[in-house]
Specification:
Blueprint lengths: L4 H9 L26 E6 L2 E6 L2 E6 L11 H10 L6 E6 L2 E5 L2 E5 L5 H10 L9 E4 L4 H4 L3 E2 L2 E2 L5 E5 H8 L4 H6 L7 E4 L4 E3 L2 E5 L8 E6 L5 E4 L24 H18 L3 E2 L8 E7 L2 E6 L3 H6 L1
Parallel strand pairs: 6-7, 7-10, 10-11, 15-16
Antiparallel strand pairs: 1-2, 2-5, 3-4, 5-6, 8-9, 12-13, 13-14, 14-15, 16-17, 17-18
Length: 309
C-alpha cells in the first residue's frame, strides 16, 4: 500500500507522548553531524553572536497544578483554547544562552545535566573549555544541573558569576542540588547585584520573586540595540505571559514574581525589546505585545537576519 502525505501526517500525530523524552545525548557519543538533531539557534546581534541552546525538552500533564494556581478552571481552559493548546497537557524546554563578544564566550545557565548542555554546545560548535564565563541566573536545578558532576566543573576555564542575594539564600537552604553542584565552587564565584556588568554591554537586572535573587541580563550591542536574557521571568508563553497575574508553583515569592512579570512584560512591550526566555518555545526568542487583558508572545522570525544584512 502506498502511504499518502495525509496518511503519513496522521500516523505521526498518533505517536504517544511518551516518545517525547528529554534530550540528554552525550556530546562525546553524538552521531555524525548530519544526523544530529539541531540543538542550537544562532543570532547575529551587532558585535555579539548569540547561540540559544536546546538543553532538553519534555511533555507534562496537569499543567494547572503548575501554572495559573489562582485561576479558575474555566478561565484556564478558555485561555488554553484561545491559544490552540490543550489545557491538560504541556510541553517544556530549557534554553541556556551563549554570548560571544570580543574574546569572551559567556554561557548563561546549564540545563539539567552535563550531557544535555554538552550536546547542545556541540551542536553550536562550541567546546566546553571555550566557555570563558559561566553566569547562573538563579539556582533552580534546571539551571545549575549541568554545571558540574562529582565535584568537577563542566567548563574548566570558566569564571563563575551569580547574584549576591541568590547565593546568600541558597548557601543556607540545605538544597541537595545546590550542595552537589554549586557548593564545591562557592569561593570561586564573583557575586554581583542589579546594574553590575558581567562584561561591558551585558548588565544585570534584578528580577526577584521566582527565586529570592534571580537576575536577568540586558544586552546592548555596539549599535545601541538591546535584547533581554530573561531567565525564568515568565515560565510559559501563554499561561504566565498572557496572564502575568496568574501564580506559578515554582515562584518562591508569588506576589513579588507577579509584580516582576507585570513590570518587565510592560517594559518589553512598550520599548519593543526582544527577549530570550528560558522556557519559551524553542528557539525561545521573541517579543511581547500588549493585549486588552494581558500580553501575547510574538516569536521572532527574520528580524535579526535583516538587521545583520
Amino acid at each position: 500500500m502506498t502511504m499518502t502525505r495525509r496518511m503519513a501526517l496522521a500516523s505521526g500525530a498518533a505517536l504517544p507522548l511518551a516518545t517525547l523524552a528529554p534530550l540528554a545525548a552525550s556530546a562525546q557519543t553524538a552521531p555524525a553531524a548530519e544526523d544530529t538533531p539541531r540543538l542550537s539557534h544562532r543570532i547575529e546581534f551587532g558585535n555579539m553572536t548569540i547561540n540559544v541552546l536546546l538543553g532538553g525538552e519534555g511533555a507534562g500533564t496537569e499543567p494547572q497544578k503548575t501554572f495559573g494556581l489562582n485561576a479558575s478552571a474555566e478561565d484556564f481552559n478558555e485561555l488554553s483554547e484561545e491559544n490552540f493548546i490543550p489545557a491538560d497537557r504541556s510541553f517544556n524546554n530549557y534554553a541556556p544562552v551563549v554570548i560571544e563578544v570580543g574574546d569572551e564566550v559567556i554561557l548563561f545557565d546549564t540545563s539539567v545535566n552535563p550531557d544535555s548542555i554538552l550536546a547542545a554546545l556541540a551542536s553550536a560548535g562550541i567546546a566546553p573549555d571555550a566557555i570563558t564565563t559561566l553566569v547562573i541566573t538563579h539556582m533552580h536545578g534546571d539551571h545549575i544541573g549541568g554545571m558540574s558532576a562529582d565535584g568537577t566543573l563542566t567548563f574548566p576555564n570558566a569564571k563563575l558569576v551569580t547574584g549576591q542575594v541568590e547565593m546568600d539564600y541558597w548557601a543556607q537552604s540545605g538544597n541537595e542540588t545546590f550542595e552537589s553542584k554549586v557548593r564545591p565552587f562557592m569561593d570561586d564565584f564573583r557575586l554581583i547585584s542589579g546594574d553590575d556588568e558581567v562584561v561591558p554591554g551585558i548588565k544585570a537586572i534584578e528580577a526577584f520573586g521566582h527565586t529570592p535573587g534571580m537576575l536577568m541580563f540586558m544586552l546592548t550591542n555596539d549599535e545601541g540595540n538591546t535584547l533581554l536574557v530573561a531567565a525564568d521571568m515568565t515560565n510559559h508563553y501563554v499561561w504566565s505571559l498572557a496572564r502575568p497575574e496568574w501564580e506559578v508553583r515554582f515562584d518562591m515569592d508569588k506576589p513579588t514574581a507577579i509584580a516582576t512579570r507585570q513590570k518587565v512584560l510592560a517594559m518589553l512591550s512598550e520599548e519593543k525589546i526582544p527577549f530570550i526566555g528560558y522556557h519559551m518555545p524553542f528557539p525561545s526568542v521573541g517579543y511581547v505585545a500588549e493585549t486588552e487583558d494581558g500580553f501575547r508572545f510574538v516569536p521572532a522570525t527574520y528580524q535579526f537576519k535583516l538587521a545583520a544584512s
